[in-house]
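Q: My collaborator sent me two sequences in one message, no labels, and asked for predicted structures for both. Can we handle them in order? The first one she listed is below.
A: Yes, handling them in the order given. First sequence, followed by its structure tokens:
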Amino acid sequence: MKILVTGAAGFIGSHTAERLKSLGHDVVGLDNFNDYYSLDLKNLNAKSLKDNGIEIIKKDLRDTDLAEVLPNDINYIFHFAAQPGISQTSTFEDYFENNIIATKNLIDYATQCNDIKLFVNIGTSSIYGLEATFPESIAPMPASHYGVTKLAAEQLVLQKSREEQMNSCSLRLYSVIGPRERPEKMYTKLIDLGLKGKAFPLFEGSDKHLRSFTYVGDIVDGVVSVIGNESKVNGEIINLGTEVEHTTKEGIEAVEQVLGKSIALDIKPKRLGDQSRTKANIDKARALLNYNPQTTLLEAVTKQVEWFKANF
């Protein structure tokens, strides 16, 4: 199959592209290589993809000429590209354009392809709101511009299933960690500052937050399992993550254990829109995709520390 992966130079997108290639698929990557975070990491990911025979097209999904640049014989689309997370440096317009307008443009392109079997939107637990412990049937209550615009993007994609114009589904991911995690994310920053002997900035009260910290390899297992299951997943929203919860404090302690040293904390004011609890309800993923994440927090952190030391 010929597969397009957007955001292919990013964290989860790059891992997914490589997995799909290893499964024998013809993979085309797309990324705009923006400077939301250091391009060093994206270029490192892109080099790994290139070494694995995966082409990356540099293109911005906000452009309206995608059909003129991208191949028209794509069978599957895995849409990771987005304006991510909760950031004081990102405006509402950034989220709106990169999450809603970009997704609409990609959908328009997909409908012009000759044989699209499935459009897979990559959603987020942030769609649920300040607590994300629910089944997919619950009414979402996003509490950030990120969550609101990712919900809108998800609905634009699923609209095509309802109109019977294209098979589509949306996978809501939970607190993904592991090698290639973005520099501003918790574990990469913890590892970096811990190795340098510097204090980690911790938002007030967030040490008690509960998270479904899920190893990226376990997430990719679920993502790629939709291939061949189009009839099962068409029109569906599916949670992917681990049911095991850990506090942020336990996450910090896991990094300290792997590094063999304590990490000082620099307490910052509470961050608005931050989720207090995420626990992936994966009953649906188990039923439809036989999904069963297995990697422990300590195993995931160990792999991430090894990767960080090898590359930075």
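Q: And the one she listed second?
A: Here it is, processed independently of the first:
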Amino acid sequence: MKLLLIGFGVVGQGFAEILRDKAAELQQKHNFVAEIIGVVTASTGTLYRSNGLDIPALLEAAQGGSFALYPDQPGLRRGMTAGDMITAGDADVLVEVSPTDLETAQPALDYCHQALDAGLHLVLANKGPVALDYANLQAKARDKGLQMRYEATVMAGTPTMHLAEDALAGCAIRSARGILNGTTNYILTQMETGMSYDEALAQAQELGYAETDPAGDVEGWDAAGKVLILAKALFGGGLRLTDLDVSGITAISATDIAAAKAAGQRYKLIASATPAGGSVKATRLPLDDPLASIGGSTNAITLETDLLGDITLIGAGAGKLETGYALLSDLLAIQRRTSAT
């Protein structure tokens, strides 16, 4: 399986490390062999080699800050655009791991359509194209006999979409609600120990859970993008970001936390998707709610089904190897379905 990667930051490098470290196991157990033949980044450069790039050398160059550090080898091409690589005709899958843009999804969205037109499957960690153009991308993939998979967009490697779409096939999913942002969950957990919001945010930034500008997390927009994906994948429809009721945790005070605790409740930032719409808002949960027990940066989601009742899935919602694994799981799923046909 020959792969083009758009983006090669933390997630892309985590994925490459998995391919490097587990190559023999993946071949032996799953008959899976993958080559990264092209990488496009905005800051590090671009590399392309139809016979495969050397992954240890690729990682070393990326960690050095420039693909100029990648050694020359026969067939290596530098400076190609993403479009050039897609139309070259050597790749099987486009793996989109560039930063998310929930306003336009560009330029990733154009790359996704171009890749499908060229006969490539899609695997995405980038939420933008799935959140904003799910129906069109899925329809095009289906018409061309291709697959679009996006496990990494909701809870990193914790198999949310595999559970909802594959393991629960035959069940009707009536709603999905969960803790889909680890940064805010960590902050709320720390506030329960007596920290102020500002203190908990500063600690989250020190630990790498929160960005220098944490607005996307603490104001609810990261979770909102995931709600859009869940709503469109599970229920269809044309829900837009502006249709969601979105608020974050910035207005939650230590007094609010204490009042909830006194009432036998706990604040969580709950992202919800139903056939009627979606929301992201800080919510007081009773302590017997499965989501109330989720602490730290952990994520969780509860799917309400007609046949099995509520099913709650708990796991990592971010991380280098965790999200890299989601990409691998999608590629293995593509291989299984392609082999079955």
